[in-house]
Amino acid sequence: MECDDFKSNVSDKASLQRGLSTYMNYCYGCHSLKYSRYKRVAEDLSIPLEMYENNLIYDGSKIGELMNISLQKDDAIEWLGAYPPDLTLEARLRRPDWIYTYLRNYYPDSSRPYGVNNRVYQNVNMPHVLEDLQNSLPKAEYDLLIYDLTNFMTYVADPTAEQRKRIGIYVLLFLTIFTAFAYLTYKEFKKDLK
Questions:
Q1: Among candidates 86, 92, 99, 89, which has minimal Cα distance to 31?
Q2: Is residue 42 situated within a structural domain?
Q3: Are 146 and 100 in contact (CB under 8 A)?
Q4: Are 91 and 150 in contact, with CB atoms under 8 Å apart?
Q5: If 0-12 CB within 10 Å is exposed, 13-18 middle and 19+ buried, where does residue 191 land?
Q6: What confidence tens digit (pLDDT) does each residue in 5-57 have?
Q7: What is the tens place of the pLDDT at every residue in 98-138?
Q8: Are 173 and 124 contained in the same domain?
């Protein structure tokens, strides 16, 4: 199946904040973000630490801790049939457009344990936790929710991407100036050799 068009914008803090909220309320019960820290995410997304702690940390974890779930592996295997994967690097592994397409392609399938299947990942062993939202929101609003969630997962997979882009401009500018000076110096040395 061909993936839907998805262009992430990890500099859109409002989108990332909405994506974080969706992730914490619908995905975080099973899927950890074990390579991210609550504090780093809060600071990067301009969320006051106290607000983040009071509204988005549900298990008593401290703000400086890694975003691990409290679901135990044995319980997950017993209840779900498998331990849900960590999603920190999923956007780098599968690409954001794959995630976006995957989340938009659940459909009812009574032959599956959770009553749903997925056109992108057939026979996936994951319930459609956003089904109520998909059924109650207008399509454009649901697609925006999926966009925000995917955008957040893209940010989590590479939280320094925006900073690297900003610094990269200065590095290229420095290298251009350095190359110009190196060339002028080379010309001066070449004159002295003649």
A1: 86
A2: yes
A3: yes
A4: yes
A5: exposed
A6: 999 999 999 999 999 999 999 999 999 999 999 999 999 999 999 999 999 99
A7: 999 999 999 999 999 899 999 999 998 899 999 999 999 99
A8: no
